[in-house]
From TrEMBL:
Species of origin: Aegilops tauschii subsp. strangulata (Goatgrass)
UniProt cross-references to CDD domains, sorted A to Z: adenosine_kinase (cd01168)
Domain Carbohydrate kinase PfkB: 49-219
Keyword Hydrolase: no
Record key words, sorted: Kinase, Transferase
InterPro entries documented for this protein: Carb_kinase_PfkB-like, PfkB_dom, Ribokinase-like
A Pfam entry, by short name: PfkB
The protein's name: Carbohydrate kinase PfkB domain-containing protein
Family recorded in the similarity comment: Belongs to the carbohydrate kinase PfkB family.
Keyword Translocase: no
GO terms, molecular function: kinase activity
Amino acid sequence: ALIDHVARVDWSLLDRVPGDRGGSQQVSFEELDHILNEVNALILPSHDDPSPVRTMAGGSVANTVRGLSAGFGISTGIIGARGDDDQGILFVNNMSFSGVDLTRLRAKKGHTAQCACLVDASGNRTMRPCLSSAVKLQANEFTKEDFQGSKWLVVRYAQQNLAQIIEAIRVAKQEGLSVSLDLASFEMVRDYRSQLIALLETGNIDLCFANEDEAREIIG
């Protein structure tokens, strides 16, 4: 589970954020807090937008299943873990409101992952996720029941979750599911390209989503 803090910002603020503009780079909790404080200090609230930051359930998989459920009426669920904090409760409330089945979402003691999502005037997003101390499922916690009754497994490529991804795909394939993979960010593809190619070459990925930057990194 992940909570997004979404803010529309200009380039002057992005220039003060470490890392490549338009990509995704992990930060510590202190760095995330600093970024959000910078946003709140530099972007004044308006009548139409009283808060410069919108906080909501996020993450590419959660956004995908929420869109399928709320936008298209497709039955969806999410397999994962959320913390026993305010962010975890917000995640549950947001996803439940969109009709996503949360019976496979485990509550664990600890923090829910968070991410600063900085959107520039062109709509490009600079993501700074804070995942270091966040709760998550381990590879040995997946069960066949998590996947039964589903047609598709939707996963996001992430080196820090590669063991979980490989195990989820293995169980999903045993249960007859198709697998969709989102390539996450151009930095993730660039830094862990060989592992990604090995995953794609297993033949277990039925559908792969990549934007131009991610595709450019993987095909070289």
